[in-house]
Design goal:
The chain has two domains: about 200 residues, no CATH class; about 200 residues, no CATH class. The protein is built from 17 helices and 13 strands. The strands form three sheets. It has a six-stranded mixed barrel. A two-stranded antiparallel sheet has the order 10-13. The protein has a two-stranded antiparallel sheet with strand order 11-12. Strand 5 and strand 6 form a beta hairpin. The chain is elongated and about 105 Å long.
């Protein structure tokens, strides 16, 4: 009985091919939109998360409790060596990157009291071994060009302002932690185009040893970036760090607390998912309901004959429901295949939002990071499953009324129509 109902339902979809194809097309387009747009959003937010939890803020940050508000050079974390040893003992810590920050003036050539062509800049002292790894601020720098022994790497925009090239010297002038003038000459080994806006526009990156000597900060740092095994476990990592005695008086923040504005944007993805899931619902409901209603009225004579020869109303209901479900599944399958193919192709080539809008920009700055306009969609099976469940549910709901009408037909009256 079930196989015959399935055969009849499949055959009946071909009675009005144009109507069936239109319904299938609407459902396929909705599913394609769901899979592709949500994959684009997933890829975009994945890149954003990697950028935010990578070179900029890590999974957890440690500062002097007043440093974020005042950014004063003398608000530092003391006993850096001991602190790093204690952090390394924690089971979920992957890497520890101390940093030193200081506003300075920079000029091309030898230092003088106040060079006429000096440009505002910022010293960033880092652990070059950690920061040259994947996700660090020096990840794209050749190992031979890493800053060490009075050499520095500077940001692309700052290099253009200073008119300096790799291999040339720059003078750096600032104040140490005691308020005394500090000046020195450094060789530029490389110029980088960083995702971190501060580094790109004003950054003078030197080893933490050179920065500590320049600012009179032995065994001290303004910030410690801690990377755990998973950014989603940042709260647990921050809690374990807060239990360390050497950090009792310092501020410990997760990446969510450090970048609340980006967190709000990322949380919007859930609403975007719902929006495009709603599109699939509407497409499926409109296509299936229309097809089921029209088919029911056109086949009243057929249903009357079936009821007259002893078919139960339940079988009539089953036929209408089966037709609607088949219609929905065919549409969602086609849409899933097309959407998946589009995602797999563009995940390699990328989609440049700026180029689509006629702009030549490569990225835009937001909350201190440079976010690329090029998006690489990331395929997720859940988008296909969401559409499949939505269409199946909608198919049943949209065909309930036509199925009920068909099951309540009077056989004699239906056969006369």
């Amino acid at each position: 009985m079930q196989s015959s109902t399935l055969r009849i339902a499949w055959r009946n979809l071909g009675r009005n091919k144009r109507r069936s194809l239109l319904a299938i097309g609407a459902i396929a387009l909705g599913q394609l939109t769901l899979v592709f747009i949500n994959s684009m959003m997933a890829g975009s937010f994945d890149d954003m998360l990697k950028t935010v939890t990578g070179p900029l803020v890590g999974h957890t940050q440690i500062h002097h409790k007043d440093w974020r508000e005042e950014r004063a050079v003398d608000l530092y974390i003391d006993q850096l060596s001991k602190t790093r040893s204690e952090l390394k003992s924690l089971p979920n810590v992957e890497s520890i990157s101390p940093r030193i920050y200081s506003p300075v003036l920079a000029a091309f050539g030898a230092p003088s009291d106040v060079p006429a062509d000096a440009e505002p800049a910022a010293v960033l002292g880092v652990d070059t071994t950690i920061e040259s790894q994947n996700g660090g601020v020096l990840e794209n720098v050749d190992p031979n060009d890493l800053p060490a022994n009075r050499s520095v790497v500077i940001g692309k925009v700052l290099a253009n302002r200073l008119g300096v090239q790799a291999g040339q010297p720059i003078a750096v002038l600032g104040q140490d932690v005691d308020g005394f003038p500090a000046s020195d000459l450094f060789e530029v080994t490389a110029i980088i185009d960083s995702k971190v806006d501060l580094v790109k526009t004003m950054g003078i990156i030197m080893s933490i040893a050179d920065a500590g000597e320049f600012l009179t900060m032995p065994d001290q740092a303004h910030e410690i970036i801690v990377q755990g095994k998973d950014y989603r476990n940042a709260e647990a990592l921050a809690q374990s760090i807060s239990n360390l005695s050497t950090l009792a008086d310092n501020e410990i923040l997760t990446w969510k607390e450090s970048m609340p504005e980006l967190v709000r944007i990322i949380e919007m993805k859930w609403w975007v998912d719902l929006l495009f899931l709603g599109i699939v619902f509407v497409a499926a409901a409109a296509g299936i309901a229309n097809t089921a209603v029209m088919s029911t009225f056109e086949r009243k004579h057929e249903f009357g004959m079936l009821l007259a020869v002893g078919s139960r109303p339940g079988r009539i209901v089953g036929m209408v429901l089966t037709e609607s479900i088949i219609l929905g599944l065919v549409g969602v399958t086609i849409g899933s295949i097309l959407g998946t193919a589009a995602v797999l192709v563009t995940s390699h080539t990328g989609i440049n939002y700026a180029a689509l809008g006629g702009s030549g920009a490569e990225d835009f700055a937001f909350a201190g990071i440079n976010i690329s306009y090029v998006i690489h969609p990331r395929f997720e099976w859940r988008h296909v499953i969401f559409g499949l469940c939505a269409v199946t549910f909608t198919s049943v709901v949209a065909s309930v009324w036509p199925a009920a009408l068909a099951s309540r037909l009077e056989p004699v009256e239906a056969m006369r129509s």
